[in-house]
Amino acid sequence: MKLTTMTMAAVLLPLGLAASPAFAQDAPAHEHKPPNAVEEEQVSGPFDIAVNFAVVSDYRFRGVSLSDKDFAFQPSITVSHESGIYVGVWASNVAPNAGDDVEVDLYAGFAGGDALTYDIGATYYVYPGASGLNYYEFIGKLGTTVGPATLGATIGYVPSQSNLGNRDNIYLGTNVAVGLPGTPLTLTASIGYDEGGVFGTKKTDWSLGATATVQGFTIGASYVDSNRFLGGLAGAGAVFSISYGF
Question: Quick check: 210 and 221 in contact, CB under 8 A?
Fold first, then answer.
């Protein structure tokens, strides 16, 4: 599906709180390990490198399909320091636009915390060959665990930029993941609200799904929807994913 530059810019508004598989509200998932999260770091040194490869049936971001409901391949690499500082790069194919069909996200931030985790960072979204779509976003995240449930909240702020029609935007999102004891299954749910500065209209999106870890692979399925249609790109749909990280 061909999109105009302004339409694609309105659709391409990323990142959020620890959305593991890319079908969650805040995909892409720029995963990194906060300090003290991995014991081996005390032995292997102050740096940790995380590599992940994922395939999704539909690249959904905050309820909107950025791959025109087609499959997407999404590799990423994150380098974290024991101080909490991290940098990384994530990529995905997207719907062809202005002669380009690739998104590359360059991100960095600072994460930490124990009972209450935090993550403060920024992402620069790059569309090689279509520089008129590039933009940046600042992200703040909080997370905690209550019994078997992991709860998260995020706020994303996109300052006014010429590539996005000189309008700013705020996105608020929450998510929950509940592991089922004795099984490899985790149930997930999310809901988010878009203030409308980029999409041109206020928007609410939500998802319900489940993931399972089998032989090192994470397999996921989710129902994603929103209260907007956006040319069919934000309608209800099922999304499947499989990823492997090390």
Answer: yes
Cα–Cα dist 245/86, whole Å: 17
E-assigned strand segments in 98-128: 100-113, 116-126
Cis before residue 28, ω within 30 degrees of 0?
yes
Q: Is 102 exposed, middle or buried (0-12, 13-18, 19+ CB in 10 A)?
A: middle
Q: Are 114 and 36 in contact (CB under 8 A)?
A: yes
Kindly give, in sequence order, each residue whose CB lies less than 8 Å from that of residue 99, ignoring residues fewer than 6 positions away.
Answer: 129, 130
pLDDT attached to residue 153: 98
Answer whether 91's CB lies under 8 Å from 84's CB.
no
Q: Are 23 and 207 in contact (CB under 8 A)?
A: yes
Q: What is the pLDDT of residues 148-184, one digit of tens each?
A: 999 999 999 999 998 888 889 999 999 999 999 999 9
Instruction: Please name which of 138, 237, 153, 244 lies closest in space to residue 193, comparing C-alpha atoms.
Output: 153
Q: How far apart are CA 168 and CA 190, in angstroms?
A: 23
> Which structure tokens are listed for 73?
């391949």
- The distance in angstroms from the start CA to the end CA of the chain is 34
Instruction: Name the residue among 172, 232, 224, 174 with its Cα closest to residue 196.
Output: 172
Are the beta carbons of 85 and 48 closer than 8 angstroms? no
Distance CA 174, CA 15 (A): 13
- In angstroms, what CA-CA distances link 158 with 35, 73, 77, 134, 138? 27, 26, 24, 12, 6
Model pTM?
0.83
